[in-house]
Amino acid sequence: MFANFAASPGDPILSLQQTYAEDPRSDKVNLSIGIYHDEAGRVPQLKSVKRAQARLRSIDAPCVYQPMAGAANYRQAVQTLLFGAGHTKVTAGHVATIQTVGGSGALKVGSDLLRRHFPDAEVWISNPTWDNHAAIFEGSGFPVKRYTYFDSQTQGVDFEAMSACLRTLRRGSIVLFHPCCHNPTGADLTNAQWDRIISIVTSRGLLPFLDIAYQGFGSGVEEDCYAIRAMADADVSFLVSSSFSKTFSLYGERCGALSIVCASADEAARALSQSELAVRRNYSSPPTHGGQLVATVLLDAELKALWIREVDAMRERIAEMRRQLHDAMRVVQPGGNFRYLLKQRGMFAYTGLSADQVRALRTNSGIYLVDSGRLCIAGLNTGNIQRVAVALAAMTL
Ligand code: PMP
Asked: Does residue 104 have its Cβ closer than 6 Å to ligand 1?
């Protein structure tokens, strides 16, 4: 039956974790996967989450199925976090939010839903983007195309080329954006540039899909939602996929959400029922525990304040690692321009190294980056940064 199955090469980032685990070198450094590590090189367990865990443990209840849309308290907490407390689109009932299996589940449910209702649409993603974006939308049957985004000369966004490209898209095209901390480049739009994107989206009749997986790792938990809130303020109809994997350090709990911002409460009720159908067809209902940890934190003023301080601390540690890597590379190579490390935001830096250079770095120094040249800043600490700086600066000599 299965003799003709070809072996899949696997996901390039996930397979690299296996290679890293098997690497016997004691001074190896993993800067490939997007997982936040603390100064001691550990994946943290947040204090706010620990406290929520203690509270939940005291609730002794059987574990029944959740509704297809997930838990009501979680869905409400997500809306407040993304749109801000008391946003009129939320209070008017124009936003349909469901709990999903991580941010990936939100993308999958959203793309299945859109494919059913807009079978002739094209999906446009940034060039480059997180690899799984193309895989998920293609998996739902969409043709996936790429809009100009990153300029390797300036190591920032080529905004003029990006907006020129968006202006040429067919009406009804679905366009995936990263509201903050672009993966893999760390190059983000300014608020003024988002305003210009909104006017293009409105005038060209595009359907934005905003994917936010790093809320709080850019400028702050509230600040990072500028694009989402500005689009809602401008009465644009759009989707948001969101993830708590990194910001709650709850990777394996698979906590995400899909929000559909509609023109009316009636439309939102129908969008909700269609998303429930898409969930039913995929996995029926989301898991319970992780969502309740997140909801317990976000719906308690004290725990939420503690969580925000913890996210702030993660963001500041990343920024400090950026500065230290930049300064250490400048010492090794005083003429080098490594300012991109300071300009780019979020967990990733886009080094501009070629796949061959990345492989050489892995073989010769045991330093693991993704083949695209993406480096996870959150894997650096004061114990490994010097070695990484020397090896990286040597690559760019
Ligand atoms: N979107 C982006 C841009 C991401 O970087 C990630 C995680 N790497 C996701 C979505 C998926 O999030 P999750 O791990 O919660 O499925």
From this structure: yes
Mutate to test the pocket of ligand 1, among 13, 33, 132 (most ligand atoms within 8 A of CB): 132
Cα of 65 from ligand 1 centre, angstroms: 25
Length of the chain: 397
Q: Is 243 in the pocket of ligand 1 (CB under 6 A)?
A: yes
What are 150's two structure tokens? 């990153």
The ipTM (two decimal places) reads 0.99
3-state DSSP of the chain: CCCCCCCCCCCHHHHHHHHHHHCCCCCCEECCCCCCCCCCCCCCCCHHHHHHHHHHHCCCCCCCCCCCCCCHHHHHHHHHHHHCCCCHHHHCCCEEEEEEEHHHHHHHHHHHHHHHHCCCCCEEEEECCCHHHHHHHHHCCCCEEEEECEECCCCEECHHHHHHHHHCCCCCCEEEECCCCCCCCCCCCCHHHHHHHHHHHHHHCCEEEEEECCCCCCCCCCHHHHHHHHHHHCCCCEEEEEECCCCCCCHHHCEEEEEEECCCHHHHHHHHHHHHHHHHHHCCCCCCHHHHHHHHHHCCHHHHHHHHHHHHHHHHHHHHHHHHHHHHHHHHCCCCCCCHHHHCCCCEEECCCCHHHHHHHHHHHCEECCCCCEEEHHHCCCCCHHHHHHHHHHHCC
Q: Does 288 sit in the ligand 1 pocket, CB within 6 Å?
A: no
Annotated catalytic residue within 130, 188, 304, 307: 130
- 89 in catalytic set: no
- Is the entire prediction scored with pTM above 0.90? yes
Tokens at 22, concatenated: 């098997």
Tell me the per-residue pLDDT of 217-234, one tens digit each, with 9 for 90 and over: 999 999 999 999 999 999
Q: What is the pLDDT of residues 122-151, one digit of tens each?
A: 999 999 999 999 999 999 999 999 999 999
Q: Is 211 in the pocket of ligand 1 (CB under 6 A)?
A: yes
* Distance (Å, whole) CA 247 – CA 311: 6
124 is catalytic: no
Determine if ligand 1 sits within 6 Å of the CB of residue 183. yes
